[in-house]
Design goal:
Elements lengths: L1 E8 L4 H14 L5 E7 L8 H15 L5 E11 L3 H12 L5 E6 L7 H6 L2 E4 L7 H19 L8
Parallel strand pairs: 1-2, 1-4, 3-4, 3-5
Helix pairs in contact: 1-5, 3-5
Length: 157
């Protein structure tokens, strides 16, 4: 199985890019992974629904019918702990799909079409965080999940 980590990119942030690259590299020691950034249009706050719709179209055009799609969203299922999250990641790896796509959305969330396409909707926290922080948290938890699965010394029980 291959992993793909998809983000919506509206601006550059060096510290976040460095952290994302570090976790993509670490995850790559366990499974092949690609980072894919989809350019997000700059629109005013008054155009939230239009922005979500445009982002949704771009995300859906990137997905394959055979993908296992995980979206990180505020109202998704909140994993009880990292062990439970790891179990979920292992289920995805063992699902028989050839590609798992993990998506961190934009500031206004996902369109209903993207939500309908998702195989799994997860929440990273009950706290609200910006998309740069969400990307790093998601990648760190994916990395942690893989180290738990492979019994590597990263997660302290």
């Amino acid at each position: 199985m291959k992993f793909q980590f998809v983000t919506l990119k509206s601006s550059r942030n060096k510290w976040a890019e460095t952290a994302v690259a570090e976790y993509v590299d670490k995850i790559g020691h366990f499974v092949p992974i690609e980072l894919h950034e989809i350019k997000s249009k700059s629109l005013s706050r008054d155009s939230q629904e239009i922005k979500k719709s445009l982002e949704g179209e771009a995300l859906l055009s990137h997905l394959l019918a055979s993908d296992y799609v995980v979206i990180f969203t505020e109202d998704g299922h909140l994993a009880k702990d990292s062990i439970k999250f790891s179990e979920r990641v292992v289920q995805i790896v063992e699902s028989g799909k050839s590609r798992a796509v993990f998506i961190v959305g934009g500031p206004y969330g996902f369109s209903k079409e993207v939500r309908a396409r998702a195989n799994l909707m997860l929440s990273l926290s009950s706290l609200t965080m910006n998309h740069f922080v969400a990307q790093i948290v998601a990648l760190e938890q994916i990395y942690r999940a893989l180290t738990i699965w492979k019994n590597r010394s990263y997660h302290n029980v």
